[in-house]
């Protein structure tokens, strides 16, 4: 299977299906259609499935909602509640929670600022637990948060920073938020992925660093990501595919031109485009022009979902009334 850049398990499955024309052995898939939201649950069960998908074993839950790019208050609340519900399903700790939320990314680069902006909207409580010398609370989790920045500005691997914090704070769970990359422009800023397999900081722009996962940190890690960028070769590939479909509708079925269009493989198109773009340094990362508003909305949705999923005594009414 050729490597079109994507961080979404949903898209890795699609690529395999397009190549092999079958489902992936060792991978379980379930899809649920809700109002305005499609939820796809992919679980990689064994090493064969992990190798075929190019992903680690674990659960991957994807929420797709086209309206996210221009979401109104009601839709944002709906997505937040759905995301919170799915997040609760992934949390396996059956005791008062100590949670560290990590906002990955560069706050000075808008498409990469999702993580830092989301943690700035969280209801952090660890300091209150320490001040009142409490071990647990019926209404609140012991929640701490950090936006560690990027290695280009700190000179330190993000994984090293988080490992040091985990060793001191000793959370039961780490939740990491980061920007991702998609293979399709239609999923950029309209898709949220949850996973239990951890995350590589910088993966959205192709700079994979030390993994934040249970193996490296010693505690379970849930990753929350949104594809905010797509590379130019992938975008051009999608555009050519649309042009081919438009031309093929006008060509006579059975004609030589029509057959040629049908036989043109995605792999051939993608690598041809990449070869054309790279000498001119034109295979850049692309994001929609309304990315400022979208990142603000998405960070709000993710923060709301974490607040109501982790704090038993907080609901959306509390979040919207007191925290913003």
Automatic annotation (TrEMBL):
GO molecular function, one term: metalloendopeptidase activity
InterPro entries hit by this protein: Pept_HybD-like_dom_sf (IPR023430), Peptidase_A25 (IPR005080)
UniProt-listed Enzyme Commission number(s): 3.4.24.78
Propeptide positions: 1-7
Record key words, sorted: Hydrolase, Protease, Zymogen
Matching NCBIfam families: GPR
Family recorded in the similarity comment: Belongs to the peptidase A25 family.
Oligomeric and partner information: Homotetramer.
Protein task: Initiates the rapid degradation of small, acid-soluble proteins during spore germination.
Protein name: Germination protease
Organism: Anaerovirgula multivorans
Protein's gene: gpr
């Amino acid at each position: 299977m050729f490597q079109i850049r994507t961080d979404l398990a949903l898209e890795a499955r699609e690529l395999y299906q397009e190549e092999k024309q079958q489902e992936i052995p060792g991978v379980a898939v379930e899809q649920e259609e809700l109002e305005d939201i499609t939820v796809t649950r992919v679980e990689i069960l064994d090493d064969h499935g992990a190798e075929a998908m190019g992903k680690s074993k674990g659960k991957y839950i994807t929420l797709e909602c086209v309206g996210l790019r221009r979401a109104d208050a009601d839709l944002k609340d709906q997505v937040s509640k759905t995301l919170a519900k799915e997040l609760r399903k992934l949390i396996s700790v059956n005791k008062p929670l100590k949670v560290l939320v990590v906002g990955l990314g560069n706050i000075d680069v808008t498409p990469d600022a999702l993580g830092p902006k989301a943690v700035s909207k969280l209801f952090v409580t660890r300091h209150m637990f320490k001040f009142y010398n409490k071990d647990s609370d019926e209404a609140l989790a012991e929640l701490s948060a950090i936006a560690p920045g990027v290695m280009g500005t700190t000179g330190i691997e993000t994984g090293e920073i988080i490992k040091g914090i985990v060793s001191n704070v000793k959370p039961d769970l780490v939740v990491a938020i980061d920007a991702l990359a998609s293979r399709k422009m239609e999923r950029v800023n309209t898709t949220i992925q949850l996973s239990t397999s951890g995350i590589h900081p910088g993966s959205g722009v192709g700079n994979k660093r030390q993994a934040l996962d249970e193996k490296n940190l010693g505690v379970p890690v849930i990753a929350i990501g949104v594809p905010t960028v797509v590379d130019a070769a992938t975008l051009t590939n999608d555009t050519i595919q649309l042009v081919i479909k438009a031309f093929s509708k006008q060509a006579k079925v059975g004609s030589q031109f029509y057959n040629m269009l049908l036989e043109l493989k995605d792999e051939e198109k993608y690598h041809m485009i990449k070869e054309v773009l790279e000498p001119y340094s034109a295979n850049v990362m692309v994001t929609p022009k309304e990315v400022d508003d979208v990142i603000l909305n998405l960070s709000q949705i993710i923060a709301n979902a974490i607040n109501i999923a982790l704090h038993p005594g907080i609901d959306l009414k509390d979040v919207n009334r007191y925290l913003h």
